[in-house]
Amino acid sequence: MTPLIDPFARPISYLRVSVTDRCDFRCTYCMAEHMQFLPKKDLLTLEELDRLCSTFIRLGVEKLRVTGGEPLVRRDILTFFRSIARHLETGALKELTLTTNGSQLAKVAADLAALGIRRINVSLDTLEAAKFAEITRWGRLPQVLEGIAAAKRAGLKVKINTVALKGFNEDELFPLLDWCAGEGHDLTFIEVMPMGEMGEEMRLDQYWALKDLRARLADRFTLTDLAERTGGPARYVRIEETGQKVGFITPLSHNFCESCNRVRVTCTGELFMCLGQEDNADLRAPLRASEGDELLEQAIRAAIARKPKGHDFDYSRQKVAGQMSRHMSHTGG
Ligand code: SAM
Ligand code: SF4
Fold first, then answer.
1. What integer pLDDT is reported at residue 315 of this predicted model?
2. Which residues line ligand 2 (CB under 6 A)?
3. Each residue of 64-108: pLDDT tens digit?
4. Does a structural domain hold residue 107?
């Protein structure tokens, strides 16, 4: 089987799949409070998601990240995890993981760990209950902290993802860092991206460049750049004084597209070859057109053959260029 290689000689080894557009939170930078969700019939069924992911794995994908919306609010999602975990057992899949808001983790962390999941990403922008309720609108901090604690007890390695938001969590940089160090969690900061139809002005107001965040860290600590690469826009430093690893995801102020190894599939089966471009391929039609996977495989190969060189996000001229109308919950963060 010829593996998936794009026109810029980048092997595609990492798939992020969104299993739902729904969520039990309404984070202000991600969703409108009253979101119109997709009709259920448009979503891929769990069996279709399995066929799709298994086909990508057959074509060389070694890392699968399940996301959303909130992946753990999809009904029977554990059935999907249980089934797809068979590829971990055969060794075809090296890593199965998920990104979650943590609200349901207390219930399922032990099951996820038992299936062979080793590491998870949990999004957490603040450690203050009132601010948490403000930014997530519907989320409650104690529930998430309990979920994170359950994950740790189950032996899952937790990485905390924090969206850097100007005027919101700037004052929590060091408290978040200390909390993660104390709990043994890695911490990665994410620059807010121009997704969804929120006003351009608001987006620029929220934008806290990670260059500035890093400079604040460097004022207090000695930072050593790490060579570690995951094929994405994340870069890591070690804080010499504590040994802690901190990540920065800066798709806007830097562009690391040359080593991009990933593609994304939405919960309706649209394959996005780049998070920052509109071009996509419909995989639901070939999935539903036949029981075999040949049509699906052809559609995937044809799409990878037009994976673009990079994205066009740019805040540099004080306006949001390359803005995407899709919400992050649609493409899957
Ligand atoms: N619901 C899960 C969660 O919150 O982790 C998974 C999906 S969420 C869309 C994935 C990640 O995208 C989260 O860490 C979230 O903070 C981030 N995100 C959402 N909207 C964003 C935006 N406009 N810019 C940057 N990150 C965003
Ligand atoms: Fe839901 Fe995650 Fe979006 Fe927040 S960031 S609204 S938790 S999908």
1. 46
2. 23, 25-27, 30-31, 68-70, 101, 123, 329
3. 999 999 999 999 999 999 999 999 999 999 999 999 999 999 999
4. yes
188: Cβ below 6 Å to ligand 1? no
Range of the domain at 156: 14-331
Q: Average pLDDT for residues 6-33, to the nearest whole number?
A: 94
Q: How far apart are CA 168 and CA 164, in angstroms?
A: 8
What gap in Å lies between CA 213 and CA 163, rounded to an integer? 11
Assigned token pair, 165: 């938001």
Count of the separate structural domains present in the chain: 1
Q: Which atom of ligand 2 has the smallest separation from the CA of 68?
A: 8
Q: What is the CATH number of the domain that holds 117?
A: 3.20.20.70
Other Cβ atoms less than 10 A from the Cβ of 185: the count is: 19
And the tokens for 93? 């899949």
Compute the distance between CA of residue 298 and CA of residue 310 in angstroms, rounded to an integer: 23
